[in-house]
Amino acid sequence: MWVLLLIAAVISPGFSQVEEYKIDVDECKAAGFNPETLKCGLCERLSDYHLETLMSDCQQCCMKEEEFKHNKYPIAILEVCECNLARFPQVQAFVHKDMARQFGGKVRVKHVRGVRPQVALKDADFKTMETLSVEKWDTDTLIDFFNQWLE
Question: What are 107-126's pLDDT values in tens digits?
Answer without folding.
Answer: 999 999 999 999 999 999 99
